[in-house]
């Protein structure tokens, strides 16, 4: 054996691969408690498919799925009118909506790596692996719901990749005027981002927000429903509102009436009318205040309340557009296999492409609870 041969043996080992055997060359086929990795991979695929088939209740009630970068959307929910027919006349046609506004939707890519290396998979139990998957699903829910809510609560205008304007609600500063509805005309300063003028939520705040939405033609018929989206702390305050009684110096116009799922309670008053259901579209309903159902959610920032008109889950009448890629292969939460073909769970990651933009600028109104000053978008404590 020559000196060169000995050097090669020491440097590279005696096998024909001519290189170091790294830890990554070891194939792990099961978890530490003996569960096959490919079985877990198939489980994850099934869970992700089911996850994509059912969007979160809050997100689906305020948004409408689309694949286009922008839409021309009428900003009132009006209708065309028939006219009396004449014997030889030509019927009037349905024309394009005269008050349609060009609205854009963003589109961005997001991903999250599982970082499940072969060493982790070798030592981890199947439950630990599933826990990592559950955390990814929870992160996806926060991402989608949070992005939709941030668009709803933020008046700042943006633009998408085509430079189409991406709007919030009517803000009174962009020079656009809400279209007339039911004989009502609106000023260019009309805003759906209000300040309560009180350090605590009062009944007048809800009435103002409800009237702002209904005056634009939303939430006024049986095909739509007004929801009050608020933090549970604000919901507790709303639950104390009683007609004719002042809260924070403002007299309440309506009674708060607990929903059908509320705990048993005693009252000296008779309830007239239909009680709100315990849930709507998968979202908890605490009770009703006037024509609106109160829906508490920890996703809503403390100190803000939104009144939203919804046509139901994924309705085209909903306020936010939820844009996905036009190719179905890139829609929803995607599970991307790792680099080890035989065991795709190793080093796998999750990916989602989506964007948002307001479709119906008058279909919601947000109130910031503070004593004075201009409206400011919330600072979110979570993502």
Task: Describe this structure as you would to a colleague.
It is a single chain. Strand 12 (279-280) and strand 13 (283-284) form a beta hairpin. Helix 2 (37-53) packs parallel to helix 5. This protein has one domain (30-75, 113-264, 276-368). 22% of the residues lie in helices and 21% in strands. The strands form six sheets. The protein has a seven-stranded mixed β-sheet. Strands 1, 4, 17, 18 and 19 form a five-stranded mixed β-sheet that branches. With 383 residues, it is α+β, with helices and mostly antiparallel strands. The longest helix is centred in the middle third of the chain and has 28 residues, at 126-153.
Strand order of the largest sheet: 7-20-16-8-15-14-11
- Report the biggest beta sheet as strand number plus sense, adding barrel if it closes: 7 strands, mixed
Uncertain residue ranges: 1-26
What's the Cα radius of gyration? 28 Å
The portion of residues forming beta strands comes to 15-25%
